[in-house]
Amino acid sequence: MNILERYHAMEYGPAPEARNEADAWLAGRDFSKALFIDGAWKAAASGKTFETSEPSSGKLLAKVSDAGAADIDAAVAAAAKALSKWSASSGYSRAKVLYAIGRAMQRHQRLFAVLESIDNGKPIRESRDIDVPLAIRHFIHHAGWAQKLEKDFPDHKPVGVVGQVIPWNFPLLMLAWKIAPALAAGCTVVLKPAEFTPLTAILFAEICERAGVPKGVVNIVQGGPEAGAAIVNHPGVQKIAFTGSSEVGKIIRKATAGSGKKLSLELGGKSAFIVFEDADLDSAVEGLVDGIWFNQGQVCCAGSRLLVQEGIAEALIAKVKVRMSRLRVGSPLDKNTDIGPLVDRTQLDRVKGLIAEGAKQGAVCWQPDAALPTTGYYHLPTLATSVSPANILAQEEVFGPVLATMSFRNTEEAIELANNTRYGLAASVWSENINLALHVAPQLKAGVVWVNGTNMFDAACGFGGYRESGFGREGGREGMFEYLAVKLPAGPAIKPAAAGSAQPVEQPDGTSIDRTAKLFIGGKQVRPDGNYSLAVATAKGKLAGEVGLGSRKDIRDAVAAARACKAWPEATTYNRSQVLYYLAENLSGRADEFAARLVQLTGVAAKAAREEVEQSIERLFLYAGLADKFEGRVHQPPARVVTLALHEPVGVVGIVAPDNQPLLNFVSLVAPALAMGNTVVAVPSERYPLLATDLYQVIEYSDIPAGAINIVTGRSAELAGVLAKHDDVDGLWVFADAETCAKAEADSIGNLKRVWTGNGRSLDWASDEAAGDAFLRRAIEVKNVWVPYGD
Ligand code: NAD
Predict the structure, then answer these.
(1) Of the listed 300, 301, 461, 565, which one is catalytic?
(2) Which whole-number Å values give the CA distances from 475 to 99, 129, 460, 501, 558, in the listed order?
(3) Is 365 marked active-site?
(4) pLDDT for residue 360
(5) Contact, 424 vs 781, CB < 8 A?
(6) Which residues of the chain are under the pLDDT cut of 50?
(7) What whole-number distance in Å separates Cα of residue 451 and Cα of residue 343?
(8) Whose CA is nearest to atom 43 of ligand 1?
(9) 51 C-alpha to center of ligand 1: Å?
(10) What is the pLDDT of residue 505?
(11) pTM score, two decimals?
């Protein structure tokens, strides 16, 4: 045997991590009093407990108090009581607390890691080297945000009491992602860990006790879906931050509709791992190991769809199989283990069921020839080939060690396949040609893109999804906004249209122009599909004119036109800026006419009407100027990588505008959306739609590409509902009565579009606060593109 043969023949010996400290901690605790509320340990009011067991053996670890509604009430009350003092405390004092938490966690780093591996089943190498250090980094990083808050987020206030619900796949890390920014922002929290993995959160609460976190600032309640729902529905909570499945995310979106609660959802994914033929294949294979077999594939951003260029498919798959047969499946506490058990039998059954269904649908599933441990919820790494794009393994989140493979011929096809999913969390692009990688990254519908890498995370960089992967970002500056509220200049409550809007009137007044305005779709004036019109009254109750009564079909056409318009989102920011300036110029040329129209319809004095027109022109100017200035950033995480936080348009944005200041509100809503490259379907004021229809010519003369802006007049409430349910609308802004706003939120769950409503109130559109960054931020998605450097 030569030395090389000897080397390859070497067996790994067992390298177990000691667990005595963790076992002593488990033995020394009364888990029936595991609710950490107002700085004290409590049993559930009902006395109930639930069991948490060890995935590698199925053995019971603890019976943990199971919070019910009464316990959630107590936790929210404690958080509310602590809020004013905590939010008023100086940034420095909050920073000290965050730092103290981070330092205390460092001191108990190994205990955290071992407990996490025991409770969740993840290999100790991962909990020790990734989960726990990243969680600590989150607290230390956010200490700085507490001190920077006032300067970096002027006019922002902590959002209040925050309810946070997290999953079991990264129990401590998800806790850190939630609690650190909330505390830095001055919020107090009620957090519920997942019922499979309560342990490290209990240890964390002990750390809070010792690190001087004031009572009631952090409340940690253990329990299942019922406790989660009690947090979500609690009236004393001002924001919900949820990480978990898209299914539950949708339930929460619906449950919070109309409540005015701020919401962020970090949900599931089906992320693409794209390998071009010029990639370094060996690196790509290592990337895949990390991308799909990290944490047994129970990772929201797991690269579960391998898209490989045709010419190298065979070679890459061969390498992947070799590497898979070397993955070591075994005890999570063994330092050599690559793949531990899944979290629970239910998860194991689910994974097996999905593989069986995928195979039934034509996938060929391959597993290495390896033995599984005799106890526990283990599953072999699995490679599925011959996967059609519609196969369940290509579409559903498996949340297990299963990789589905497809091939592509060229770049366009790669992008199309990558985006052929209802999710949009992450993607990874492998090519030695950085130009190609950076050409592809912006075209992927995903909140995070890793170039020649995967699963890179840092507290300084935003993480979060598009589409059904949810909304909101966690981490860094982007994540801080989720826990802050900016006060917008609230205007009057909006009355439902039946009581407030124009009713058909008979007699035209002498000033009306006798024509029916059509709809504006795809750059053309078109008749409404139903061929009905809506009478528009003057301030004196006479007939001023008629507009088309838009319907579901018209909205569908308008959305299709907005989706088809590529020229606007692909235009340079300078180009968009010039077009918006031009729009302002053209409006200014017709200022008298618009002022007269405002007087005629709304009855405002001539001076006020003139002012509204001037303000509208000024606002167009503002957004024209900001189109090329509201830019992304570059993050510098502690690694040899730059992270480009790009600002991208949300996509097709529906806008439902209110009645007050009808020209100004229309411009104030449409212009920021356009400035950021979105295409728009706008429903103007139901009562004064002629201000918007009079804009058609201004738009036509302003070089706006066909489909960039579409205007559908009609009944706001009805059209808002159609927009909310339309799965090709990516964002929706609704300023209408409270019921319409609530319904728009509830109806948005189909594709989880981003909905922004005034909660039944309008704004004072003339106020400076009704313009600027707060609007632009709603018009963008932040995509973090990670680009490593160095040889
Ligand atoms: P889950 O949605 O079943 O549960 C998540 C949490 O929600 C748990 O704490 C659970 O008790 C609670 N819950 C369940 N029903 C609820 C309800 N009706 N109201 C309120 N709370 C409720 O998800 P899971 O199985 O624990 O976790 C896996 C999912 O999490 C995967 O889909 C994964 O992609 C996702 N995830 C996403 C991210 C991200 O950042 N996007 C990170 C990690 C995990």
Answers:
(1) 300
(2) 16, 19, 6, 44, 36
(3) no
(4) 98
(5) no
(6) 499-502, 504-507, 512
(7) 30
(8) 300
(9) 18
(10) 46
(11) 0.96
